[in-house]
Specification:
The protein has 583 residues and is α/β, with parallel strands linked by helices. The protein is built from 17 helices and 19 strands. The relative contact order is 0.09. The N terminus is likely disordered.
């Protein structure tokens, strides 16, 4: 009898639990954003608890942790798939994958709230489930910044009442860290990105800068840089379709207003998203990317609703218009890059190729400030206008490099190797000590910024010289063939002249400093003997003295020049330590 009662009790418990789970409705997942009438955003623990409960209630939602962040807490990945299948190796063969990133700057929390609402509405059936699109989202990327909650650091922003801080737990701006990956956040993002391998990527932000009528602006990855079939599709099809769908749903949108300290009427240019930025990084794997930039001065409720509307419109367009072609476009783009003889590593604005925007702005004037007595910019929202404005959104290649067959990386450069491994780069260890004919770079010129930027004194305007050489490589050194999925990632990181190359991010600064030197009073006698025994060297030295006054008046420069021609001068100085095997 006791066993029967116990069995009955267990049955009743599980029946009640199941009934309670099945009876959960939209009312169980009302968010803080909604209960506050669009004036507040949840804390980080509240966001995660929301998704834990959502995943427990709906089979279409899956929540997992991946990697660590600088805060010590992991990143979360929440996935919506109406089929209940969360194996991305299987999903990518059947469906288009959209990856959404939120809270990279936690004070810009619009995407955090909008994504909570969107995934809830998809899970509970308020919104029709897309048959061909799976949505994966990082609920809060900058966990440390989200935990650093305050109400003052977003000086110009119209809500919410409290929010996170832009810097992460180590005060990095994470949207400058994707290619260099100084933070655990960036490393975890790479892990998520390569697990998901999204076809489309969205990063939700809030803008600053000028004032205008729009709540929504978009910052698509620069289409010329995205390149080939994907760039054309993004510029000519995907972006216009999104604008039309939003307009149909009563949401105006314009490209990100890249204007600071002046009014937009004079025209503006597209933002160039190099690989330090999220969409610049995802572009390296031919993912179609955009940032959502809501306008800081619009009410928080309006901004969140706009972010929701944009993601909803994007999903609708992928589902009804683009699903069948996006994957093939990405594959064709990769093939086009791999087949090309050269690859662009620097870009510049094409000033002769512009578009016209029918722009909705506010009248702005420079008036005398009552505070400073100087001129200040003032917008007048009571005087809206619609005008044609020039928009420079075409870029052209400024510098190209010949694509090598492979790179050779000495195993000692383990920090670089670790980042390549993190990005699924295929590498082949050399089995025995061997000599390989390679093209060697020497750093000819570079400049370094005088102020620190995200933990680095970065280089720019880097130039190299090229020399064919036979180099002795050791067992365990790595050959990295360029004909692989990470083709663009390799060119952008390993070519020192690329804007966000590992060289320009200081990964190789040890080669810029000589480790050995000479004592002039000892070396001068040897220098004299070198000139006496080497006619070519003597003639070059004499010519340089005759044509360079500074050189001829400096004993140290003369001795240093001769020293660099001697066998004492170390081969590693200014020699870029990544070598190229040409096709």
């Amino acid at each position: 009898m006791k066993k029967l009662l116990l069995l009955l009790a267990f049955s009743l418990f599980f029946a009640c639990s199941s009934e309670q789970k099945d009876s959960k409705t939209n009312s169980d997942f009302i968010t803080i954003f909604e209960t506050s009438n669009g004036t507040e955003t949840p804390t980080y623990p509240q966001v995660i608890r929301f998704y834990e409960d959502l995943a427990e209630t709906y089979n279409e939602i899956h929540l997992e942790t991946i990697g660590k962040t600088d805060s010590g807490k992991p990143l979360h990945l929440v996935t919506y798939n109406p089929d209940g299948n969360f194996d991305f190796d299987e999903i990518r063969n059947e469906k288009t994958i959209l990856l959404v990133n939120n809270g990279i700057h936690p004070g810009e929390s619009d995407g955090i709230d909008a994504t909570m609402l969107l995934l809830r509405d998809l899970a509970n059936g308020t919104k029709k489930a897309p048959a061909n699109v799976v949505i994966a989202a990082i609920p809060v990327y900058n966990v440390g910044g989200s935990l650093n909650r305050n109400s003052g650091t977003r000086a110009n922003q119209n809500g919410p009442k409290a929010y996170g801080f832009r810097g992460n737990a180590r005060n990095y701006d994470l949207n400058r860290d994707f290619i260099k990956s100084d933070t655990k956040n960036a490393k975890a993002f790479s892990e998520i990105f390569h697990k998901v391998q999204p076809d489309v990527f969205v990063d939700n932000h809030v803008s600053n800068g000028a004032d205008y009528q729009y709540t929504l602006t978009h910052l698509f990855t620069q289409h010329n840089k995205l390149g080939h079939e994907a760039g054309q599709f993004l510029h000519e099809t995907m972006m216009p379709d999104l604008e039309v769908t939003l307009q149909k749903n009563n949401w105006d949108i314009t490209p990100y207003v890249n204007v600071f300290g002046r009014t937009p009427e004079a025209g503006f240019s597209q933002f160039m998203d190099s690989p330090r930025y999220s969409t610049g990084y995802t572009t390296l794997f031919n993912t179609l990317g955009l940032m959502v930039e809501t306008h800081m001065l619009k009410p928080y409720k309006q901004r969140v609703e706009g972010t929701y509307a944009l993601m909803d419109a994007l999903i609708e367009n992928i589902e009804t218009r683009h699903h069948s072609e996006i994957k093939s476009i990405r594959e064709k783009t990769h093939a086009s890059f791999v087949a090309a003889e050269t690859y662009p590593v620097q870009w510049e604005l094409d000033k002769n190729n512009k578009s016209i925007l029918r722009f909705k702005g506010y009248e702005g004037n420079f008036i005398t400030s009552d505070l400073t007595g100087q001129k200040r910019l003032q917008y007048n929202p009571s005087k809206p206008f619609t005008k044609d404005v020039e928009y420079a959104n075409f870029f052209k290649s400024k510098k190209e490099v010949v694509v090598p067959k492979a790179y050779v990386i000495p195993k000692g450069w383990h920090t670089v190797v670790e980042l390549l491994e993190l990005n699924n780069v295929a590498m082949k260890p050399i089995e025995n000590d061997t000599i390989i004919n390679v093209e060697t770079y020497h750093i000819k010129n570079y400049k370094t910024y005088s102020n620190p930027f995200e933990g680095h004194y970065t280089h720019y305007n880097t130039e190299v010289t090229k020399t064919p050489q036979k180099i002795n490589f050791s067992e365990g050194d790595l050959i990295v063939y360029t004909d692989q999925a990470a083709f663009r990632y390799l060119l952008e990181t390993l070519e020192p002249e690329a804007v966000d190359s590992f060289f320009n991010w200081n990964f190789f600064d040890t080669i810029l400093q000589q480790k050995e030197g000479f004592s002039a009073y000892v070396f001068e006698d040897e220098a004299k003997d070198m000139l006496a025994s080497n006619q070519r060297l003597r003639e070059e030295f004499t010519q340089k003295k005759a044509t360079d006054t500074t050189f001829s008046n400096s004993a140290s420069q003369q001795l240093r020049w001769i020293y660099k021609q001697s066998n004492h001068y170390e081969k590693a100085h200014l020699r870029y330590p990544i070598f190229r095997i040409l096709r």
